[in-house]
Specification:
Layout lengths: L3 E6 L14 H12 L5 E3 L3 E7 L6 E7 L7 H11 L6 E7 L7 E5 L7 H10 L5 E6 L9 H4 L6 H24 L1 H9 L4
Parallel strand pairs: 1-4, 1-5, 5-7
Antiparallel strand pairs: 2-3, 3-4, 6-7
Helix pairs in contact: 1-5, 2-3, 5-6
């Protein structure tokens, strides 16, 4: 369907991971669903989905949260893209990004996976890396903490104060990407904050 976008929020399933840094992608799609008064339902593509729209009369949005663990997100993403007839260039992947400071959002299409196994698995399953990404900065751990442990920790108390704004900004970025295009969304979110 040419007027449909699939928005995949990456994370791990279950209450143990709900509030962790690795699950910020799912927090963003939760916010997009909340703004539209939608709730998620089970889908045979091993995900929970909410079918909605950008705004009435505009493009359709399928918001998705894979039921799989992060490193095997490709199966659900590919299955949903097939089910809804969405080409890879309309599959938006929202994910955490270690190499971007906390409270920062970057958008891109294609390129490498930057060591992010969820993005790597989706590129493999879709057969291309040419899909849009909303990369939500979580920053790197200070000191010697292993980044693999860092992403599975909950946000710290200082981060939690700004987290609702970050999630809202990332949801805005998804809406702008769909409604206004990549360049306009990048210009808004990549500009220095003043």
């Amino acid at each position: 369907m040419a007027d449909t976008w699939l928005v995949v929020g990456l994370g791990n399933p279950g209450p143990r991971y709900e509030a962790t840094r690795h699950n910020i992608g799912q927090m963003v799609v939760d916010e997009l669903a909340r703004r539209r008064g939608e709730s998620f339902r089970a889908h045979k593509g091993n995900a929970r989905v909410a079918e909605t729209w950008l705004r009435p009369g505009a493009d359709n949005l399928v918001l998705a949260k894979p039921n799989s663990f992060m490193n095997v997100s490709g199966g659900p993403a590919s299955s949903l893209a097939d089910y809804y007839g969405v080409a890879p260039e309309r599959v938006i992947v929202v994910h955490d990004e270690l190499d971007i400071p906390f409270d920062t959002i970057k958008l891109k299409v294609g390129g490498g996976h930057g060591g992010h196994n969820g993005v790597r698995d989706i590129a493999k399953a879709l057969g291309t890396a040419e899909f849009p990404r909303v990369r939500v900065g979580i920053g790197r751990p200070v000191g010697r903490q292993d980044p693999a442990d860092w992403v599975l920790d909950p946000f710290g108390s200082v981060e939690r104060q700004n987290l609702p704004i970050l999630i809202s900004d990332a949801a805005d970025a998804v809406e702008e990407l769909v409604g206004d295009g990549l360049l306009a969304a990048q210009q808004r979110h990549h500009a220095p904050r003043g």
